[in-house]
Amino acid sequence: GATEWEILQSDAWLSLGEVLALAGRPDDASEPARRALALAEAKEYAVGAERAHKPLVEVGGGPLEPPLVIG
After folding, report:
1. Whose CA is closest to 52, among 71, 70, 31?
2. pTM higher than the cut 0.90
3. How many CB atoms lie within 10 A of CB 2?
4. pLDDT tens digits, residue range 36-53?
5. Cα distance between residue 55 and residue 2, in whole Å
6. Is pLDDT at 60 greater than 80 in this prediction?
7. What contacts 4, CB < 8 A, 6 or more positions away?
């Protein structure tokens, strides 16, 4: 359904961000990670939100709040 598609989109954005970071392009990596985080949080996808939050913090472009915690 739509939720699965949005989770896949979040994972794809995160993968792009990881590739860009590994390629030595941390400035370019932050936007895909932000998009991944936004999609993950919108769908309450806690694992994806946590994964997307880490690279943002590492490149200094992280959100001001910790990732969404579902529990």
Report:
1. 31
2. no
3. 7
4. 888 888 888 777 777 777
5. 26
6. no
7. none
